Amino acid sequence: MILLYSTFPDLKTAQAIIETLLNERVIACANVFQPSQSFYWWEGKIEKSSEITVWLKLPVENKTKAERRLRELHPYKIPCMLFLKPDACNADYLAWICEVTKPVGTT
Fold it and tell me: Tell me: the pLDDT tens digits for 56-94?
């Protein structure tokens, strides 16, 4: 299992991208936290903005696809994508993540 941390400019954008990734079975689920305050360097100056923070959960096999699709769908020029691999995950939860992200029609 991998946790993918990302941020989005607003809830509507985050929800649309999450639903696309769910429908494509790239991710098993997402947790949305709002709003968060972000402080960062951009184009030579410090910026401050309100963003939506999202944790996406997916099987390891979907990492490359998740990164590619998030780059394609995300409105930011450089989207935040932090991939974290937990030391452990309960077996039932991991099995569920793998099951719901299988392509439709496979067993």
Answer: 999 999 999 999 999 999 999 999 999 999 999 999 999
**Count of structural domains, the chain:** 1
Question: What is the side-by-side order of every strand in the sheet holding 82-84?
Answer: 29-42, 45-58, 2-8, 82-84
Structural domain range at position 89: 2-100
Q: What does the chain come to in residues?
A: 107
Q: What is the DSSP track for 4-60?
A: EEEEESSHHHHHHHHHHHHHTTS-SEEEEEEEEEEEEEETTEEEEEEEEEEEEEE-G
CATH code where residue 10 lies = 3.30.70.120
> Other C-beta atoms within 10 Å of 71: how many?
12
Contact 10, 52 (CB under 8 A): yes
